[in-house]
Amino acid sequence: xxxxxxxxxxxxLTFSDNVKMVSQQLNNPLRNAVxxxxxxxxxxxxxxxxxxxxxxxxxxxxxxNPENPPSRKRRWLxxxxxxxxxxxxxxxxxxxxxxxxxxxxxxxxxxxxxxxxFDKILGIRPKAGGGYELAxxxxxxxxSEGKTPTSTVALPNGNYIAVDYGSTGTAAGLNISKMRSATxxxxxxxxxxxxxxxxxxxxxxxxxxxxxxxxxxxGKNLNPFDVExxxxxxxxKLLGINWxxxxxxxxxxxxxxLVPLWTKANVMAGFWQDVEGQIFNDPSSRxxxxxxxxxxxxxxxxxxxxxxxxxxxxx
Length: 315
Prior knowledge:
- By secondary structure, the chain is α+β, with helices and mostly antiparallel strands.
- Helix content is about 25%, strand content about 30%.
- It starts with 8 loop residues before the first helix and ends with a strand.
């Protein structure tokens, strides 16, 4: 018995709809932690930044008009390169699997592209040999800036919390002193004060252990449900921060884990195209069915002062 390998129009429509459905079911956690916008054109501005205006002291009988123009600059989302995954359906029986949204073959392509979306929003890319490094824009990477998008601006060194902050000089993991330093710095800049602008943090299983240890130390002062959510590795709010878990955080040059905290309104993710899929017969490959899943997304910080990064020692 053989299975039909001709891709009909109804196959194409079903495959496309299933890709969108599964992408939503996978629930990339960073999508809900940033502000998403529809991207278009070669570049799209995300913010017109106006610096603080100074003032003058006016002398008696002064006739000169004040002239205190604030500095102006603009930040941009540049039309991104694509993220894709897919392949040929080389055996007849796998054609059905490619059309089945519950199959591992189908979901594996979509998971691959969603990882790419995650990396673009965070501002990282995989390194050769393993691990991750800062790249592009996003929460951690350099953001395009200028009257036109001709230059990039990295997150300032002052936005990084030292690995030994609040201690006696010994490197430490994620602790209350570092978290308070990060959130306080944003609050002083008027970030994180608005009730609707939640603060998010991204941590690895190592920092999850640090949070659980803090929960044990503080005992009844923390919500038991939230503590249990953290223990199970689920997104939860603890100590005023919405924590999200990942294994994709980069290390700095000294081997310390970089743990970002940011406010939702301060990170823009532009989707020129969300995750979509297509299936068709490829005449260049013996007319076998070919699957392509792709997306076009980039991200950037509206203002640097709405992001802080904690350096963490890991045991």
